[in-house]
Amino acid sequence: MARCSVPPKLAIFLIIAVTLILLLPAFGLSFGHPLASGTDQYYIDHSQEQTGSNNVVTAIVFDFRGFDTLGEATVLFIAVLGVAMFFRRTH
Amino acid sequence: MVTGLIGRTAGRLLVPFIFIFGFYIVAHGHLSPGGGFQGGAVIATGVALVLVCYYYRECMEHFIEAKNFKLIESAGLILFICTALAGLVLASGFFFNWLNASGGLFGNAVEYGANVGDLFTAGIIPVLNFAVGIEVFGGLSVVLLYMFAGLKETTKEEDDAEPHNFAQTEELP
């Protein structure tokens, strides 16, 4: 194991300082004005007539992005399978 | 591990309302905030309350079996995939909203713009919500049941037989 030549506290301080310096330009960005908003506006305008759902979020999650929800449900299923395998009774 | 009379009675009173609230969140997923994942988690909270209030073995003997919850979870995922596949068979593609505005189940036409909200609209979205709700409810309950099965918990009879465990350990020299 290699010896650390910098004291750990100084290393943590340097990491935080460099992160803050690199994050500074991010504070100047304006929130809520994305460059490309065509898809968002399409969903807001047309989701009710195309899916019949009053809730735009549900319309996107379960209709426009149905594959994403299928993946989420499968991930949950596999996670439960893993837990069931981990806690199984060994006779 | 003893849950007192107050905890048991409060849990028994609260559990039906938790189930009804979770069912409401699932059923109104296409009208109000919420949906299958959230409602299923709320219903699984009711199962967790039952497991905390009663002994695991009592639950196993009387009204809960982990095998049934595995079936429920698998049925939810299969219902989800079959509803999506029916769009491929009956209409143009996978996940096509073939029930929307068809006049059948959940097929009422929706008024565009701001409206009161009709429960029987939005086509396959409520069906998928119910499928995901069933799956999340079954899955989280299976996780809870397996974790409780791993605990070494005493029965009520053993607790009643040895009520002074703490006092005995203190008297050791």
Beta-strand segment tally of chain B: 0
Strand content of chain B: under 5%
> How would a crystallographer describe the biggest sheet of chain B?
none
Count of DSSP H/I helices of chain B: 7
Order of helical and strand elements of chain A: HHHH
Question: Percent of residues of chain A in helical segments?
Answer: over 70%
Measured by residues with Cβ under 8 Å of the partner chain's Cβ, the largest interface is: A-B, 30 and 45 residues
List the uncertain runs of chain B. none
Distance from first to last alpha carbon of chain B: 27 Å
Q: Give the C-alpha Rg of chain A.
A: 24 Å
Specify Rg of chain B, calculated over alpha carbons.
Answer: 22 Å
Helix- and strand-based class of chain B?
A: mainly alpha
Task: State the major sheet of chain A.
Answer: none
How many domains of chain B, as an integer? 1
Distance between the termini of chain A: 43 Å
Order of helices and strands of chain B: HHHHHHH
Oligomer: heterodimer
Proportion of strand residues of chain A? under 5%
- Mean pLDDT score of chain A: 83
Walk me through this protein's architecture.
The complex is a heterodimer of chains A (91) and B (173). Chain A is mainly α and 91 residues long. Chain A is 70% helix and 0% strand. Chain A is built from four helices and no strands. Chain A has helices at 8-27, 38-51, 56-64, 66-86. Chain A is flat and about 65 Å long. The two termini of chain A are 43 Å apart. Chain B is mainly alpha-helical and 173 residues long. Chain B has one domain (5-164). Chain B contains seven helices and no strands. In chain B, helix 2 (36-53) runs parallel beside helix 5 and helix 4 (66-90) runs antiparallel to helix 5 (124-150). The chains are: A mainly alpha (91), B mainly alpha (173). At the A-B interface, helix 2, helix 3 and helix 4 of A face helix 4 and helix 5 of B.
